Recover the amino acids of this structure.
C-alpha cells in the first residue's frame, strides 16, 4: 500500500475466516481484524476487501478462476 502515510497500519492485524452452513448453501465471512474506522486506509481497504471477496473469491469458488489484483 505505497500511498499510505502510515506504513504500519496493518502491523499486528489478522484476517479471520468463518465458514458455516446456511441452509443448502455455505456462508463465508471474512474479517480484517484491526482494520477499523479512523485509520488512514479504512475506506479504501474496506472497499478493496469487499470487491476482492465478493468478486474474485466468489468466482474462484463458483467458476474455478479468480481475478488476481
Amino acid at each position: 500500500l505505497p500511498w499510505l502515510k502510515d506504513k504500519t497500519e496493518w502491523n499486528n492485524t489478522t484476517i479471520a475466516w468463518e465458514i458455516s452452513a446456511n441452509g443448502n448453501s455455505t456462508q463465508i465471512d471474512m474479517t480484517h481484524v484491526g482494520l477499523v474506522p479512523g485509520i488512514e486506509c479504512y475506506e479504501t481497504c474496506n472497499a478493496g476487501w469487499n470487491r476482492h471477496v465478493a468478486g474474485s473469491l466468489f468466482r474462484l469458488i463458483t467458476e474455478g478462476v479468480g481475478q488476481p489484483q
Q: What stands out?
A: The longest strand covers residues 14-22.
